[in-house]
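Hi P.,

Sorry for the delay on this. The queue was packed all week, but I finally got your sequence through. Input first:
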Amino acid sequence: MSETMVEVKGLKKYFTVGKGRELKAVDDVSFFIKKGETLGLVGESGCGKSTLGKTIMKFYEPTGGQIVFQDQDITKLSRKEYLEFTRKAQMIFQDPYASLDSRMTAGSIISEGMDIHNICQNKKERQERVYELLKLVGLNKEHANRFAHEFSGGQRQRIGIARALALNPRFIVCDEPISALDVSIQAQIINLLLKLQQEMELTYLFIAHDLSVVKHISDRVAVMYLGAIMEISDSKRFYTNPLHPYTKALLSAIPIADPDVTRARKRILLEGDVPSPVNPKPGCKFAGRCKFVKPVCLEQAPELKETESGHFVACHQAARG
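Then the structure:
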């Protein structure tokens, strides 16, 4: 698992929200994802996770930086090049109700990409491929002729996954794919994604706010705050030896089933609200909520530095320690 599938270099996505005002949804983000691995991306709501995923998928045009996919810079693509890119990269959306057209059957939804890319030339071949995909995600061929509104949330998300797999992609952005589902269904979808990854050698960017889920599915974890990456490390080290104060606060809030452990541990409470990403102040983005803040934190934004092998953190204090 040494080949790099995706590398993001200084990626920026700004939105103009008024005269002279910019909302910096993604602000100078850099990371890589190796072939066959899952990078979990976590953070509070509004931190820019979904915008980052959609920018990588080219739903949004980047304001700056580079997106390198399988050694090809895809930052600027022609229509033909973009169509070729979408055969290799797909997205599973957060809301299984809004992301499926209720006027279309499951079979039509899954085969739409095949029609665009001229895959499965005849009707019978296309139909067999749809049946194959439905079976792959735990549904059956009878579901092909049902309309989207006839399915439960979990079934809808399975259809969304089948649609993403229809073109045999190598990389999938999973944008909080279980957050809109009942808890009883969430584990089924996670286990399905893990099974498909193993069988099809898929690479995932898994966006979520539930750190317990991310721990189960991710090889490495990245923490995002106000459009920037605060920390990246392998999953084991992330949960046992976090370095950034924001990461430590997030981990302290994870529910633990053992009441003795829950009573013994200390919850780290963050004071204040997440500041506005519109024309943010200089310095560290987390400085206004950090109890370890120093003068340098208010003046200079910390770089994402490797403090130990494979462990990166953007914090002046952690980098010194």
